[in-house]
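B., you asked whether I could sanity-check this one before it goes into the benchmark set. Here's the sequence:
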Amino acid sequence: MFADRAKIFIASGKGGDGHVSFRRELYVPDGGPDGGDGGNGGDVIFVVDPGLNTLTDFRHVRKYKAEDGEEGGKRNCHGANGNDVVLKVPAGTVVKDFETGKVILDMSNKTEPVVLLKGGHGGKGNRQYVTSVMQAPKYAQPGQPAKEMWVTLELKMIADVGLVGFPNVGKSTFLSRVTNAKPKIANYHFTTLNPNLGVVDLGDKNGFVIADIPGIIEGASQGVGLGIEFLRHIERTKVLIHMVDAASTEGRDPIVDIEAINKELLAYNEELANRPQVIAANKCDALYGDDYETVIEMLKDEYEPKGIRVFPISAVSGKGLDELLWYVNQLVKEAPDDIIEFESEMDVMYRDNPDLPFEVTKSPDEEGVFLVEGPRIERMLGYTNLESEKGFAFFQRFLKENGILDMLEKLGINEGDTVRLYGLEFDYYK
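And here's what the prediction gave me:
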């Protein structure tokens, strides 16, 4: 079975905790703190593997977790960083958030590995907290938590041309004749259950990649049959060849068929429906005399005024194929060179769960110290890199948008007071 969709769980590694220890050696009675920093957790990394063309591997293994960072040690020993987990996917894979369906990452044009989930930063050991007034700190920073989520992987084929049409109009026969692809051919609805890719070679560096999309039926855009599973594969195509049974061998009206499928394309993706399109009127060798002229003229009168060329062809005999292929080749050349890429709709580094609680309180033991704690705060710190400008700007925005600054004001915070969030300390200034 061709695997073009999979649901998996991914998790980065937790940062190792900082260590609390003090130097204890002979003749050094008052050794200072020597607790080392924790190691960083491993990342979740996606990389394109040119040798893959399905998502089959992800059907068997559903959970992928990077290693946690090691805790810091005595004598300033830094904990080891956790190993990354690398997920190899075929070109054209789109990663979506399972809960919302939003696009996180499109691996179509990615030639380098992409870090999707960063591992938690290792916590600082107590040696990092030595100040002029605090010579022997007895606390260390915990490692930042791991980031985890369920994602959906979708493979959207990368092809120049999409071949669409109702079942049994001759698409598989057409593909086997004009490319090196070998699709299974039989007279059954939905015979082709797997999208097929083939290369049309016209010589002298002319040609294109074509994807034969299994027969689309009415209601496909709403999930009837296997429609949506197939429609996703033509989202990247530059040109559509719309094949119809001009001879109506199954009693179908070719114009009604064309309009029905165009309606499904429009309902699924309006941009897709507006791509350059040509009509391949297949099985024209089964039309004779006036019937041939009537059907072909009817199709041309309906669609060529709209800028859609009609080509009478026979996939069995090869009649009309050269003219069709060279015309499509020219449309592909005129289309933008870039592979259509889906823009990211969410940034997993800065996602948050607004339902998680938190609290802002005065420290009961230390004057001028305010505590901001709770699951929401801990989670935010887990996916925010405060050492980067972007991360710190998000941190400040998080405090404001969640009303934390207002809460501190109500508690009577003054300039120069300390705000503590799980071992992180900041001086407060308006």
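One thing to flag: The longest strand covers residues 148-155. Otherwise nothing jumped out at me.
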